[in-house]
Amino acid sequence: MTHRRERSRGQAMAEFTLIVPLFFVMSVVAIDLARVVWAMDITASAAREAARWAIVHGGAPATACPVGPPSADATIPNASGSCPYPSPLTTSVKNLAIDRALSGGGGSVSATVCYYNPVTTASCSGDTNGTSATNARGMTLTVRVTSNLDLFTSTLFQKVASALGNTGVPSTYSVVGSSTMLINN
Fold first, then answer.
1. What is the pLDDT of residues 18-76, one digit of tens each?
2. How far is CA 11 from the centre of its chain?
């Protein structure tokens, strides 16, 4: 009878030692997955907030500090404490997007802003504005926010992959949020 009980304890200990590391790895993977989903939400929200701010601070005559490529009839103030980055700069929009994305605890964050005329151009990319794009009513603006997350599991997966002969496992995961809005002010 004692022999069976000892064998049962040994079996339980062996099962425990096999399950605990697996449970730990699955928990860390779940945490990383949750961080990626959270970062996706934060970057999308940051892009949306920055695009909204940019279309409100476009080239309408009543705008005290316009941002983006100015239209021909725009009045552009000199840079000052209340307007540090006037048109044609998009630095204010980028800074807002990056500040909002960093609040999500992501790694390195970058933002791009481009304007385009939806009548003549289908889209724009990076910081390159479309031909004849301005910050005037009827133009379109795209803000793209990229956050690079250092995942907890990347080191673990890199070591396992390296042991198996694969060195292509990335150490970071890029999450991108983008928002395109029509300037309507």
1. 899 888 888 888 888 888 889 899 999 999 999 999 998 877 777 788 888 988 777 88
2. 48
58: amino acid identity, one letter: G
Q: Which residues contact 120 (CB under 8 A, 6 or more apart)?
A: 130, 131, 132
Which helix (H) or strand (E) segment holds residue 30: the answer is helix 2-56
How far apart are alpha carbons 134 and 120 in whole angstroms?
13
**Domain with 87 in it:** 2-182
What DSSP string describes 75-142? --PPP-SS-SS-TT--HHHHHHHHHHHHTTT-SEEEEEEEEE-TTT-S--BTTBPPTT--SSTT-EEE
Q: What total number of domains does the chain contain?
A: 1
Write the DSSP symbol of residue 71.
Answer: P
- Look up residue 164 and give its DSSP letter: T
Distance CA(175)–CA(173), nearest Å, equals 7
Q: Which helix (H) or strand (E) holds 143?
A: strand 140-150
Q: Nearest 5°: CA angle at 35, between 174 and 153?
A: 75
In 115-139, which positions are buried (b, 16+ CB within 10 angstroms) versus exposed (e)?
A: bbbeeebeebeeeebbeebbbbeeb
Kindly report the pTM of this predicted structure: 0.81
